[in-house]
Amino acid sequence: MKSGSFRIRLALLAAALSGAVLAGFGAYAWWVVHDIKVADIDSDLISSAERESMRFLPPPEWARFAENVLPRSLGIREPAHVLLLVENRFGEIVFESGNWPAGIDSSKLPWPKAKLPPWPPDFSRPPPRIPPATAKYEASANGTTWRFGLAATPHSRIAIAVGMDEMRLGMDRVRNGFLLAAPAALAFLALGAWFLSGRALKPVRELGQSIRGISAQKLDQRLPVIRDREFAVLAEGINEMLERLEKSFTQASRFSADASHELKTPLTILQGQIERAISQVEAGSPMQAMLGSILDEARRLSSISRKLLLLSQADAGRLRLQLTPFDLSREVEELVEDTRMMAPALLVSVKLPEGITIRADADLMRQLLVNLVSNAVKYNLQNGWIRIGLERTEQVVQVEISNSSSGIAPESREKIFERFYRTDASRSRNVDGVGLGLSLAREIARAHGGDLVLLDSPRGEVSFRLSLPC
């Protein structure tokens, strides 16, 4: 999609930017949730350790507590994921969970220093409540990370730990859910960006459609006013350019048409006087030959003037067509007979169905056919050939004219219909012509709703195809 290429790039850029923001936000949110969960676990562990450090229970009671009460209070489903260690004031172990990891040395836990009551004691007041000293700690053993809450009083020390595997499994589920949802979110964002970019580029498409509707015959048209300020500046600039282009094109067309029109009468008079002078001089004399050469140049100049007038009318959209039934088969047949008489050295073959009639301007259509055939004669090889084919389909009539040739250079194929363009080969062979015949032929074809194109032909051959509506 041509116009969609920028739209696609815009949508992909928006999706990539949104994806980067989404990935960054997802990573940040994951770490925030992770830190909050760890902080909540630390808070629960410290609170439980503080609370339980004030108890004095025998080992059997601590065992029941570690097996039943403590996991529920921490919200842990599996007792094996909870550790409990109780020591007395002398550092002797009162209770240690049976599942205590071998890789964690309980004697090397970083116990906080217990807070002591003030000394000497003030017996006039009730003894103050001394809160336990607390600390948090993390250790790993056998691939499992344990988070500890430590509490110490002058009479005991207690450590409570939970395994982080369950929390990390939960965080993994959050991450995997995000990774699964991210592609769908990105696709939705890309679709939204595609839709929004299409809405944003709608004025540009409208400008493009309006510009495509402006041709050399419609330079007086202007682009509509656009409400969006950014695109309004573009439309105003194009309208200003069209105004300057219309003025220049009108002046050039008027000059070409006026010059051709003004030359028509003097050239007609000049031809008449030369013909009269030729009839008055001695036949076969050098003067008659010189006057004949001058007459040929005057006729050539008159032909150029007429072609320029027709081209200027076509450019301005004022090429008026007098459409009448035109027997294309008969006209091509007569043209073939004339060609055989003018160029007897050329082998002319024809494929000509009878009765093919179209609606066309007779004078202009004859001019078109003459231009094509004369072009095939001029740019032919010595003792070469010309092949003319006429074919009718349901919608178009096609005339294909081919001739033997030394070929057309690739760089010349693109310019073959330009005005006053002549190939290097035609210049080197001094072929008569100024490079207007093919350009005029195509303009006449297009004025009739058809076209004239140069076909891809085998080496040593040049072919043109004229297509006209039935």
What does this structure look like?
The chain is α+β, with helices and mostly antiparallel strands and 470 residues long. The protein folds into three domains: 2-118 and 130-173; 229-315, Helix Hairpins (Orthogonal Bundle), CATH 1.10.287; 323-469, Histidine kinase-like ATPase, C-terminal domain (Heat Shock Protein 90), CATH 3.30.565. The protein is 53% helix and 17% strand. It has eleven helices and twelve strands. The protein has helices at residues 2-52, 59-74, 165-200, 202-212, 229-280, 286-315, 328-342, 362-378, 410-413, 424-428, 437-447, and strands spanning 82-88, 93-96, 133-141, 144-152, 156-163, 323-327, 347-351, 357-361, 385-392, 396-404, 451-454, 461-469. The strands form three sheets. A five-stranded antiparallel β-sheet has the order 2-1-5-4-3. A hairpin with a 2-residue loop joins strand 3 (133-141) and strand 4. Helix 5 (229-280) runs antiparallel to helix 6. The chain is rod-shaped and about 160 Å long. The model is unreliable at 426-430 (pLDDT under 50).
The average pLDDT score comes to 83
Strand proportion: 15-25%
H/I helix tally: 11
Order the strands across the largest sheet as they lie in space: 2-1-5-4-3
Q: For this entry, what is the oligomeric state of its chains?
A: single chain
Radius of gyration: 50 Å
Query: Low-confidence parts lasting 5 or more residues at pLDDT below 50?
Result: 426-430
Shape: rod-shaped
Percent range of helical residues: 40-55%
Task: Briefly note the structural class of the backbone.
Answer: alpha+beta
Terminal Cα span: 34 Å
